[in-house]
Amino acid sequence: MLGSTQKPSVDARLLAIAGAHLRRFGRRRLTVVGVAEDAGMTHANVYRYFPSKSDLVDAVVAQWLKTLEVDLAAIADAPDPADDKLERLLLAVAHAHRDCLESDPNLFDAYAGAAQALRPVVRKHRARQRALLERVLDEGVAADAFRPRDRERAAAFVIDAVYRFINPVAVRADAEAPRDVLDTRLSVMIRVILRSLASGSV
C-alpha cells in the first residue's frame, strides 16, 4: 500500500535495543531481562531469537563488523594499484578499531571479549578479512608489484606485522598510547610490508 511503512522484524528490533543497552551499560551489565522489558516481551521470547546473552552481544558486534567489512570490500574492489589498496586496507582496519575504542568503548570491549574467547563472530570476520587481503596480494602478484616467495607466508607476514594495530585485544592494551604515535608506527610497518612484498623477501 502507498504510504505504508514496514515494521522492523522482531529480531532486528531486539538487536537495536540490545545495541543501545550494550553501549549504555556495557556487556557485563546488559541483561536479557532488560532488553525484553524495553521490547515489551518476556525474556523467554528473546531466547527464541537469541539463545543466550552471548549470542545477543555477538549479534550486536557482528553488525559493526559487517559495516567494516563493507568498507574493506569497497577498497579491495577499487581500480587502484595493489600496493595502494593494501595500504588503504590496513589503515582502514586499524583506524576503525581505534575509532571504535575511542567513540564506542563498550561495543569495543564486547568485540575484544569475543576475540579473546574466539567466538564464531570473530573467527568469521577474520576469515573474511584474510580473503580480502589475499585477493589484493594476488592482484599485486599478477601485476608484478609483489613477488612473495609463498602466498600463505606472505599473508601471515602482513597480519603479524600489523597485529598490534588490528587485533582488538592489542588495540585495547594500547588505549593510553597517543594516537599520532601509533599512526606513525603503523605507517612505518606498512612501508616495511610493501618493501618486503616488492623485493620478494617473504
TrEMBL record:
Annotated region of DNA binding: 31-50
Record keywords, A-Z: DNA-binding, Transcription, Transcription regulation
Molecular function as annotated in GO: DNA-binding transcription factor activity; transcription cis-regulatory region binding
SUPFAM superfamilies given in the database record: Homeodomain-like, Tetracyclin repressor-like, C-terminal domain
HTH tetR-type domain span: 8-68
Matches recorded under Pfam families: TetR_C_27, TetR_N
Record-given protein name: TetR/AcrR family transcriptional regulator
Lineage of the species this protein comes from: Bacteria, Pseudomonadati, Pseudomonadota, Alphaproteobacteria, Hyphomicrobiales
